[in-house]
Design goal:
By secondary structure, the protein is α/β, with parallel strands linked by helices. It has two domains: 225 residues, Type I PLP-dependent aspartate aminotransferase-like (Major domain) (Aspartate Aminotransferase, domain 2, 3-Layer(aba) Sandwich), CATH 3.40.640; 131 residues, Aspartate Aminotransferase, domain 1. Helices cover 39% and strands 14% of the residues. The protein is built from 15 helices and twelve strands. Strands 1-7-6-5-4-2-3 form a seven-stranded mixed β-sheet, sandwiched between helices. Helix 8 links the parallel strand 5 and strand 6. Helix 4 packs across helix 9. The protein is globular, with a radius of gyration of 22 Å. It binds pyridoxal-5'-phosphate (PLP). The site of pyridoxal-5'-phosphate has 15 residues, from helix 4 and helix 5.
């Protein structure tokens, strides 16, 4: 990237951000499949270990292909913001979340979050952290008065962890208001920006301290690699203790997956525009169907978080969920009838993906627990793809129960 020619368009930055001229003039960043890097002399090795000379040493610590992906995402998350961020690429979204949590929380601390969270994050908070004497406080963070009461009463709460829009219910929380509240009580804030991507939402704009992504999803965009990233604007923390912890935990990404991620991100803007346009039309179609009890899409005025989404997102996103009136069996029948749309649990790919939490991801979760999280038996989660809208609607229409 040429710093004397700052790019004014988000899409241009997605194409060129993070790229450095290759010493051998390769057009695309090479896949640096090398576990270690050579020193010209012992003295050079000494200077690199000492941090007096920049340069790669060992790929768990850093790798040129990973650097390009890290710098591209950091540039996109700070686009047109007067700040700089550092990104650390991880082997998965969960690895990035783990580094974030372990870098900040110690025994006796508490972390506050909300009900609807990605299942893996929910399990880390509820099942792993308590073993380290770190307790989760789960509340509806859309209720700001109640949230402030909790923070006021409990100084052990050290971190606020947000996911918006949240998996799988598409609930949104207000980044600006919660960021302000967290600062008032000296909490570190973090946001999982996987569903929105930096194209639709920039949590740093609202004073959020850290961002995590499962890059497996829209950033990669094609379902070809698992990955994650942790970003922060406190550069001395990110380059110091956070980098050290990440290197020790060993959840580093690999260069081939980073290469796929870089290629995917170049088309993020045009993919997201099409995903979101299709999602709005699909949501309106589903809302008009007699067999559908409810559509959860923040683009619809009927969604309780519609205004929050409008305030902080460019478009309401590609993810929606809807509830079939017939419950569990109608969810199963609907899934089995799909022809073009794909039955799978992930999201963020070009093709339309649907999952039925009650028979898949949340099959073993007790009913009362599921309902607390808004997951009912007839709920279908959908990643609206970039196919032609008519084909998506045709497939959904033929799979929905006839009245
Ligand atoms: C919102 C969100 N965050 C984090 C993750 C975890 O990411 P990964 O599967 O890449 O570890 C997921 C996975 O589905 C997710 O949907």
């Amino acid at each position: 990237m040429n710093k004397s020619f700052p790019l004014t368009g988000w899409g241009s930055l997605a194409v060129h951000g993070g790229h450095k001229k290759d010493p051998l003039y390769a057009h695309q960043v090479p896949i640096y499949a090398s576990s270690s890097y050579v020193f010209d002399t012992a003295e050079q090795g000494m200077r690199r270990f000492d941090g007096k000379e920049e340069g790669y040493i060992y790929s768990r610590w850093g790798n040129p292909t990973l650097t390009e992906a890290e710098e591209k995402i950091a540039a996109l998350e700070t686009f047109q913001l007067d700040m700089e961020a550092k990104g650390i690429l991880h082997a998965s979204g969960m690895a990035a979340i783990t580094t974030l949590l372990l870098a900040h929380l110690k025994p006796g601390d508490k972390i506050i979050s909300h009900y609807s969270l990605y299942g893996g994050t929910n399990d880390i908070l509820g099942k792993v952290l308590p073993g380290l004497q770190i307790s989760p406080v789960i509340s509806d963070l859309r209720d700001l008065t109640k949230t402030e009461d909790i923070l006021k009463a409990d100084p052990a709460i050290k971190m606020m962890y947000l996911e918006t829009p949240a998996n799988p219910t598409i609930q949104c929380v207000d980044l600006e208001e919660l960021g302000r509240l967290a600062k008032k009580y000296n909490l570190v804030t973090a946001c999982d920006n996987t569903f929105a991507t930096p194209y639709l939402q920039q949590p740093f704009r609202y004073g959020i301290d850290f961002i995590v992504h499962s890059t497996t999803k829209f950033l990669n965009g094609h379902g070809t690699a698992i990955g994650g990233i942790l970003l922060g604007t406190d550069l001395s923390f990110m380059n110091g203790p956070c980098t050290k912890l990440h290197r020790l935990l060993g959840g580093n990404a690999n260069p081939f997956d980073a290469f796929l991620l870089i290629q995917g991100m170049k088309t993020l803007e045009i993919r997201m525009d099409r995903h979101c346009r299709n999602a709005m039309e699909v949501a309106a179609f589903l809302e008009a169907q007699p067999s559908v009890a409810r559509v959860n899409y923040t683009g619809l005025a009927s969604h309780p978080d519609h205004h929050t989404a409008l305030k902080q997102m460019r478009h309401p996103g590609a993810m929606l969920s809807f509830e079939l009136k017939g419950g569990l069996q109608s969810g199963i029948d609907f899934m089995n009838k799909l022809q073009m749309c794909v039955r799978t649990v992930s999201l963020g790919t070009c093709d339309t993906l649907l999952s039925h939490p009650a028979s898949m991801t949340h099959y073993s979760v007790p009913k009362e627990e599921k309902e607390k999280y808004g997951i009912t038996d007839g709920l279908i989660r959908m990643n609206v793809g970039i196919e032609n809208l008519a084909d998506i609607i045709h497939d959904l229409g033929q799979a929905l129960p006839a009245d």
